[in-house]
Write a structure and sequence with these properties.
- The chain has two domains: about 35 residues; about 70 residues.
- It has a four-stranded antiparallel sheet.
- It is of the alpha+beta class.
- α1 crosses α2.
Length: about 110
């Protein structure tokens, strides 16, 4: 009997395969949803852009630090983080986390 057939016959094996399938499905959903969170105004030819990342909650230190690797933090307010100098190629990565609701151009004064 092969290892794969044994895993499918056992309850533990089916649970593990179910969890792995759910995790892979969630990762696929995050990847497919990211481009839809990016505002069309960010389309252009410049290699770097200034962006405003909208969140459904007040950003905490963790969220600010998570985005520092993509650009310079220009500030944060009640539900957003402003970043300067983000590479255009990193926009999908910035928009990918489930807790990011949208990514748009930086607001004036930010």
């Amino acid at each position: 009997m092969s290892l794969a057939s044994e895993a499918l016959r056992s309850t533990k094996g089916r649970v593990i395969l179910g969890v792995v399938a759910a995790w892979l499905g969630f990762q696929l959903w995050l990847t497919l949803a990211a481009p839809g969170k990016i505002a069309p105004e960010l389309a252009g030819t410049s290699p770097r852009v200034n962006i405003q990342i909208e969140l459904p909650f007040t950003p905490e230190r963790f969220h600010v630090q998570a985005f520092q690797q993509y650009g310079r933090v220009a500030g944060a307010d009640d539900h957003s983080i402003a970043l300067r100098g983000v590479k255009r190629t990193d926009l999908n990565t910035v928009a990918r986390p489930y807790w990011v609701t949208s990514v748009g151009p930086m607001k004036e004064g930010g």
